[in-house]
Amino acid sequence: MGLIESLELGLVTALTLENLFYCFVGVSVGMIVGVLPGIGHLAAISLLMPLTFHVPATAALVMLAGIYYGAQYGGSIASILLNLPGTASSAVICLDGYPMAQKGRAGSALMITTIASFFGSCVAIIVLIFLAPPLARIAMNFQSADYFSMMVLGLVAAGSISQGKPAMGLASMLLGLIIGLVGIDVNSGAMRLTFGMPELMDGVSIIVIAMALFGVTEVIASVGNGFGAGGKSTTVTWGTLMPTRDEWRQTPWPLVRGAAVGTGVGLLPGTGGGSMASFMAYAVEKRASRRPETFGTGNVAGITAPESANNAAAQSAFIPTLTLGIPGDAIMALMLGALLIHGIAPGPRVVTESPDLFWGLVVSFLIGNLMLLILNIPLIQLWVRILQIPYRLLFPAIILLICVGVYSLERSVFDVLLVAGMSAVGFVLMRLGFEAAPLLLGFILGPMLEENLRRSLLLSRGDPMIFLERPVSATFLGLSVLMLAWVLWGVVRPQRPADETTTSKSMRESMK
């Protein structure tokens, strides 16, 4: 099937009333979640995932994806108006967005970020349309050994390229792998890590993991940090929405550079998506600027490039997820979980065996971004009012929805208690510096990793050299070893004392 026919199929699929409805619900919820500081799109997707069990797979993915990129739009609103990032990836917008608001240019900043979000998303969607099919065709030639090695690389990358210490990221990933082993071994029928509890025979549900780590834990952490928007207020008038002529002139090249950075980062599994992309785009733009000293004081390029990169990364992250079955971050891991729940095996066969799902999802990205562009600007005044809701009134409702959502899965009180227990463990791990995203990635990829490992060893009659004899597999394993060596070097590398560093620096300055 050619590209034109594929897009026609996607258009027919995305324009059904059911898919349009779920797309609208997804982007609307995502935008609200992005506006409200401290909730996060991970919690929202975890909360709403049980509602997608009884709808077709395409509609479910359209809604969940809409929440994801819708939150990227809304995250910059709180950053600009209140200096509170609605999402982690919009934190860099605070650096220049809030100073613009203090200068009375909040409306202009919101308009520019909306346009930058739309532009970055469109660039990444075009790359997705042209790159995903050939990438899937290449991946169709992969064998089980190649898939195993590729998943090892994805897990190592997710653990080592983390926001905290790489060693802790790898430890979180290994913990996720262990949790993924809970249940009955398919080959032998033996019980693994169930501790005699029959409720764990089928393993731990991804909904339980997601709601515990990204729902309850994040809410507790936000309340403990006093994170919320209550008590602050600001005013945005319609007369201040349009940027000035000078501000328009400063936006084109930052838009392009930010979209390029975001698309490239989103293509790489394990990079964390929008957060890394937005900070990288900000650094690139500051270096490319003729007046870098103006960054942090309300520079238009300081919000244009990160916002474009943020949304480009959110869309391009679907390329390795849908074509290779390798998620780039926790959100993409949840998307893989949604595919598995609906009985669809993630990987290159999604493009060939479920073209209506793949191309319907791609076209829904364009439709959802158009919806966000139309909705975002008229609702700015509403977002300003919502931002004044005290967080102490929001978090009890979130906890209640989590409990109802978990109980609705199997009508099991055990699942609710499991969420409570894992939330407590997750909060302790967060306080110790461990990250939840690598854990979720390990949990999702663990069973697939084990399946491909066993299949490869069966084909080779137990000879582990099969992973080194195939060039693709050997390349992936080699990259994994190099990345692990880099992490270990960072752990064992001797650190110079602070006083020695200061002394040597002062000596160099005196020599000058």
Automatic annotation (TrEMBL):
Span of domain DUF112: 20-441
Keywords for this protein: Membrane, Transmembrane, Transmembrane helix
Pfam families listed in its UniProt record: TctA
Transmembrane annotation, as ranges: 20-39, 51-71, 77-98, 110-132, 144-161, 168-184, 204-223, 324-345, 357-377, 389-409, 421-446, 467-489
Entry protein name: DUF112 domain-containing protein
Protein's organism: Roseivivax isoporae LMG 25204
